[in-house]
Amino acid sequence: MRNIILFIRRFFTLVVFFVLQGVCIAILVNYNKTYEAVFANAANELSGRADKQYNNIEYFFHLKETNRQLAEENARLRNSLLSNFDGPGNNKVLQIDTTYKDTLGRVRQFSWLPAKVVSNSLSSETNYLTLNRGASQGVTKDMAVVGPDGIVGKVILVSSNYARVMSLLNRNSKVSAMLKKGSYSGIVEWDGGDPRHLILRNIPKSAQVKQGDTVLTSNLSGNFPPGLMVGTVSKIESEQSSNFYTMKVQTATNFFTLQFAYLVENETWKEQKALEAQTPKNQ
């Protein structure tokens, strides 16, 4: 105790200087939008690099599961190739389209970018992921994130080489989804409980739904392509005071073993949001 007191007395001026410096930096960051943005970007970049080093070690122990997921995804993609099917006069070869517009005038709407998960939280009510792709690779805010088995979340913060993603396992996450059978639309969110289950709300009681039914992203999802897997219905509850069901949905994505994901950009999303923002409020 005596040594601590002597140490403080000896370096009192230096300690006070660093404390005041910390207070000044905190005031600048909290009350100046420019400094706040710079600090957030630098913090995200630094934490991303640290998480990447940690993940390199953890990733080694998940190679078997990762290879299984990649093999299953490759099988699904190969099965969807046009060259796997034959018919009268069928001599077409399917090629990867990297153009913005094809010869028929059809415009590309969604672009996919592979990424590796370098950080993933599961124990909080507001969980996030970090991906090793950022602004330098074309990542922008609000891009959808999709895993090998289903949707994962959306990008909320971007630095030069990393992207911060709001997971589906976040109390603030809401995604428009629909039942595959009947196309009834609702909202998928998380109640902060079991990481293996989401909550699907606003499905009318007129819907013919049962356990095991498939839940997909709807055409109202905006940044998510429609028809992607969200999960399957595991429990159905009828709200006595309304005309809607509340359902538990088992997630298609296993967040405990997630190692790779895809960043998906809706090329027309910005235009849609800009138009909707211009809608007169009194009409």
UniProtKB/TrEMBL annotation:
It comes from Filimonas effusa. GO terms for cellular component: plasma membrane. Belongs to the MreC family. Keywords: Cell shape, Membrane, Transmembrane, Transmembrane helix. The keyword Magnesium does not apply. This is Cell shape-determining protein MreC. It holds the Pfam family MreC. Residues 117-264 form the Rod shape-determining protein MreC beta-barrel core domain. InterPro entries: Cell/Rod_1 (IPR042177), Cell/Rod_MreC_2 (IPR042175), MreC (IPR007221), MreC_beta-barrel_core (IPR055342). The chain crosses the membrane at residues 12-31. Involved in formation and maintenance of cell shape. One of its GO terms (biological process) is regulation of cell shape.
